[in-house]
Design brief:
Length: 338
């Protein structure tokens, strides 16, 4: 399925107006068309290195569909790391933390590991000002976009009643509209909960039972298996104090936002600093944090639930063949088979 079609399906609910009055139906259709235009514009921006200081780094460099909407690195490498993304990427602009996956990010009220962003729009603009990420001030990014006629036309179509169409607010709006299409809710677990008893095999069902018995759902709350809680998980570092850096509250020291478990098998390594290479090791660590003891087969079952039961990449975004700037897209070095 091409990206435009995938985004269009995401908009079906707002486009359906068969029972509405004609004027309301026309209004809904117009709103859906604008939403589609903004999400598609956001997709192009997401993959376009024009938004970085080096002209090689894009949002997709660190949030790649090849790596679970993350990057496969323990800690992100920002601008001046070349055009290669994925585990082979090298560079001096090493970020402080592991790149969070973007699945179901629209359902969060706080974003980033320390919760410094309170909306997708706010989150979308943070990388521009960070030296270890895009390192391009938003004003410079807007100037670069304004110099590309195709972007001028795309912004005008997506924001027809605004002048100028290319603005800080609209850049954030387009990027966040695209990120809202990154939804994962069609995993085997979802089919099982909908009544298909055969959607999970016995070992996966055993893992699900353990998940609730260990009260993992207190933080990783179904159905999205995430929450806006912050938790310290015994992975302290004096160079990264987590949520404490935002709030100054002693209880927030070394606490980090709970990540999603949706598609978690795609986004290794794990935790805020990427110190844990495999999902099973991450599961083992969390079990130890619960002061629980599991057999090897129980650990396998719990890992299988996360790796297979919560896997749904049916809405993986399509990487465009080209972007309006004409710059080469980031390239992934290799893909690890499932």
């Amino acid at each position: 399925m091409r990206a435009a079609s995938a985004i269009a399906l995401w908009l079906v609910a707002s486009a359906c107006a068969s029972d509405a009055a004609p004027s309301a139906a026309a209004s809904d259709a117009g709103s859906s068309e604008l939403a589609l235009a903004r999400a598609e514009l956001g997709r192009l921006l997401f993959y376009d290195p024009i938004l970085s200081i080096d002209g090689e780094t894009a949002c997709a460099t660190c949030h790649s569909e090849h790596w679970g909407m993350s990057d496969g690195l323990p800690r992100a490498i920002g601008a001046f790391g070349g055009s290669l993304s994925g585990p082979g990427r090298q560079g001096e602009n090493l970020g402080l933390r592991n790149t969070p996956a973007l699945w179901n990010a629209a359902e969060r009220s706080v974003l980033s590991w320390d919760g410094r962003a309170e909306s997708l729009e706010q989150q979308a603009l943070l990388p521009f000002e960070l030296e270890a990420e895009l390192a391009l001030p938003v004003a410079d990014a807007l100037a670069a976009l304004s110099a590309v006629p195709e972007y001028e036309a795309l912004f005008a179509a997506a924001f027809p009643d605004a002048a100028p169409a290319i603005s800080r607010m609209h850049l954030a709006s387009a990027l966040s509209a695209f990120m809202r299409t990154l939804v994962s809710d069609r995993a085997p677990y979802d089919a099982y909960e909908a009544g298909d008893r055969g959607a999970l095999r016995e070992t996966t069902r055993a893992g699900l039972r353990l998940f609730f018995e260990l009260e993992c759902d207190g933080c990783h709350t179904p159905p999205l298996f995430q929450s806006d809680r912050f938790a310290a998980r015994g992975l302290s570092s004096e160079t990264d104090l987590g949520r404490f850096e935002i709030t100054g509250e002693p209880n927030d020291r070394h606490a980090f936002r709970v990540p999603t478990l949706r598609n978690v098998s795609e986004s290794a390594p794990y935790f805020h600093d990427g110190r844990t290479k495999t999902l099973r090791e991450a599961v083992q660590h969390e079990v130890e944090q619960q002061a629980a003891t599991l057999t090897e087969s129980e650990l396998d079952a719990l890992t299988e639930l996360l790796a297979k039961g919560l896997l749904d990449i049916s809405r993986n975004p399509d990487r465009p063949e080209r972007v309006p700037s004409g710059l080469p897209l980031p390239r992934d070095g290799f893909r690890i088979p499932r």
